[in-house]
Amino acid sequence: MNVFLSIARRILSILVTLFGASVIVFIILRVLPGNAVSAAMGTSEGLLTRAQIAALDRYYGVGQPAVQQYFSWLHATLTGNLGVSLTYRESVSTLIGSTLPVTLELAFFSMVLGLFIGVGFGMWSALHPGRWQDNLGQAVSVVGLAVPGFILAQVLSVYMADKFHYFPSSLNFVGFFTNPWLNFQQIIFPALVLSLGIGAAILRTTRGAVLEVKSLNFARTALGKGVSRSAYIWRHLFLNSLTAVVTMSGIQLGYLIGGTVFVEQIFVLPGMGRQMITAITDRDYPVLQSVTLVFAAGFVIVNMLVDLTYSLVDPRTRKR
Amino acid sequence: MSESTTIPPGSDEDVVRHRGWFAALWHSRDGRRGVIIVGVVLVVGLMGLWGLTPYAADAQNPASVLKGISFSHPMGTDQFGRDVFSQAMQGLGVSLEIAFLSVLIAGVIGTIGGIVAGFLGKWTSAMIMRMTDMMFAIPTILFALAIVTALGFGIVDSAIAIGVPWIPIFVRVVRSPVLALRESDFVRAGRVLGFSRLRLLWRHILPNVAGVIAVQTSLTLSWAIVAEAGLSFLGLGPPPPTASLGEMVNNAGSLAGVAWWTLWGPSLVIVIAVIGFNFLGDGLRDTSDPRTRTR
Q1: Do B140 and A258 touch (CB under 8 A)?
Q2: ipTM of the complex
Q3: Of A119, A315, B220, B236, which one's alpha carbon is 20 to 30 angstroms from that of A288?
Q4: Domain spans of chain A?
């Protein structure tokens, strides 16, 4: 029963957090820029008649008190009406429906690759501390942490296109179910770029955690009683370092989400990050507001899932 | 970890503590690397900011277009014949200006928030922590993008956009040591002696969290440089003719096939600055927290 209670409490706190985040987004994007209509219309506002401006103002709730604007926006959002894109004249939910899968696929591949790089090199480093394997791991982590994703992406895309005349992203993006092989080629390079950044952080954490577990008595005992090497590495060391790895992966999720914005832009992937940049340059506030909120919701929900996996990963946290 | 807990009293640890913070920093490997790299980065950046560049950053020269690396142009020239190194120097200066300004915003507000949340009553603390949770829900760079959209692309706008999302990090980092300090003997003694809250905070709490703040400041600076370059890469930074590293990386996308130096020059400058502040942060952490010194 306690489990349900704690899950319910978590969901409640998530709802409160998301409510707060929506207020912050609303304040930044609706209250600060002043009149969203004139911002969206830009110079062409002068061409509109006074009646047209008034009609637009009414639609966007300009002139109403901010609190009222917020709640009518919240009500519309919760009933599934995310508004209409000012540039595409299309409903925002349709736009997000087409871009979200791309970003999810990218994030998924990046996370999987990042875990492979991070856990792989991290374990390898920790098993050979101070030797060349460790130095290699340290080099990977220094590069991964110091080279921003957009530089990596820019370098990779330039060299792929110019030196090898290979740039699958220049073809129109295809979904996974239409052409899996082309889709894979289009996703894998941006995913690789993102995975190096998160992989570097996971690498450091894995290395530190494994080194610490290695120094504990039970690990030495396991070696002493002649446990096989693979059982020692994976059952004794890896499983006991998993909590730290999971925590770090959760933290890196924010970096991952931010990174999609740049990487999608460079590799021309029609995902939510690219949509966000387009919305910013077009001053398309309804799109921008919703996309930011969807990102925040995804971030918060996955973080909750990470919290929930602790009890799976580490039996010690189950009793509470 | 295990080695550091077994250090006998009177050894290295005491020596370091009596040396003063800079000497201790210099003594640590990462710290020394950080001090040297950050020192060079600061000097070069300030020279760029004050116009002390080999060429004027925006001086076009049709006679030397897309020239490779040479003694007169250590990072080559771009498609207008501008010296890439001079531009990168100016871009670095602007980057540093925005980064320091944004960390000042995040650091001052975040530290005040953290100290208040740690020192004052339960209610205030709960309120502040709830607010940081809400800010945490929005990934930092997206937060910055939203703010920059609302405010505009000036230097101060960029600094606010990059600083504000980092406030909750400072709040959290500062709050936890303050919570522990509040119950420590010397703070209790101060309270018994009738010191005012302000004096306790200023004279007793703040100096003891200064190390934590220094570490976080250095690491945040490295993030801020990346964020600033990222914003200007997307065309959301200070507009031309101000040179900016991110914009240079972006422009090089179409040039790098024929002139690789246009991409590598500014990228290298960003990476070196980031590595420098990361080393400095690690070094500061090593010297301010004896538990992690052996790493």
Answers
A1: yes
A2: 0.83
A3: B220
A4: 96-286
CB contact under 8 A, A147 and B137: no
Whole-structure pTM value? 0.85
Alpha-carbon gap, residue B291 to B28, rounded angstroms:
14
The domain made up of B88-292 has a fold known as MetI-like fold (1.10.3720)
| Residue A223 sits at the chain B interface (C-beta within 8 Å) | no
A96-286 under CATH 3.40.1500.10, yes or no: no
8 Å CB contact of B267 and A254? no
What tens digit of pLDDT does each residue of B213-226 get?
Answer: 999 999 899 999 99
Q: With CA atoms as reference, report the closest residue to A292 among A270, A273, A266.
A: A273
Residues of B in contact with A241 (CB under 8 A): none
List helix spans (H) across A27-131.
36-41, 50-60, 66-78, 92-127
For residue A159, give the chain B residue with the closest CA.
B257
Q: How far is CA A11 from CA A4, A5, A16, A195, A212, in A?
A: 10, 10, 9, 29, 34
**pLDDT tens for residues A247-280?**
888 888 888 888 999 999 999 889 999 999 988 8
Contact, A263 vs A194, CB < 8 A? yes
The residue type at B105:
I
| Domain map (residue ranges) of chain B | 88-292
